[in-house]
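Listing S7. Sequence submitted for prediction.
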Amino acid sequence: MNSAVAHRPSPQVVVELLKPITWFPPMWALGCGVVSSGVSPGQRWPLIFVGVLLAGPMVCGTSQAVNDWYDRHVDAINEPDRPIPSGRIPGRWGLYIAVLWTALSLLLAASLGIWGFIAAIVGLVLAWAYSAPPIRLKQNGWWGNAACGLCYEGLPWFTGAAVMSASSPDWRIVVIALLYSIGAHGIMTLNDFKSVEGDRRMGIDSLPVLLGVGNAARFACLVMAVPQAVVVALLLTWQRPIYAATVGALLIAQFFLMAHFLKNPRARAPWYNGTGISCYVIGMLITAFALASIGTG
């Protein structure tokens, strides 16, 4: 690493460190929370915009900066071209950016009311606990993936609904957000296939390391499928059969995609991320509209 280089990182490299491609899931989940509340946006568009900004570029961006700083030695093995191991983020700038983004996220969250602020604090605490010692949840794939799933899906969904209702969301919204967070545990496992060698060498017990690639892939598919099946059952219970049938059809489509993915998990994980996960997130939005039609707001 060229950590001794004294210059400041360029804005373009800082943006690369914050990984805009990772912002979509929490922004989408926040949008689902907004929809699920059943509350008309009215004059709340500024708050919705702040919520999207908080979920994506700020809190998620913070998590990426924190993770890259504490993973710089692993990345030097798995992905040496990343900003920190390549030296394009010199010295301790990676840490400084993570701390700064944490503070800015808290300032922004303060404008969203008490529930939005609490959700942001939980998300930021988990972002640091995931990567930073001594807790470093990512050392264990069970706990680390659970933290990521909650931050990517459940907390943003809760935040979006809380911003719209200006209170704690309806219990059905919380249950659905938690179910999709559990499913996201499997999605996080897909991201671990690309770094098996480095994880083994650095003592990181990701699920592909703990279970083996094949078993981890099968477990990931199971964890993604079961919560969606529960969502379908709940929608039927709440007398929303058309929404339930649509989410169920998307789940069936995922079964076919999963079968193809499981034939070669390491090579096809990026492919499944672009196909099966698309069905997953579309199902999230359909479920959000179902909740709105119930009048949970």
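Caption to Listing S7: primary sequence and predicted structure tokens for the chain studied. Confidence is low (pLDDT under 50) at residues 1-5. The longest helix spans residues 265-294.
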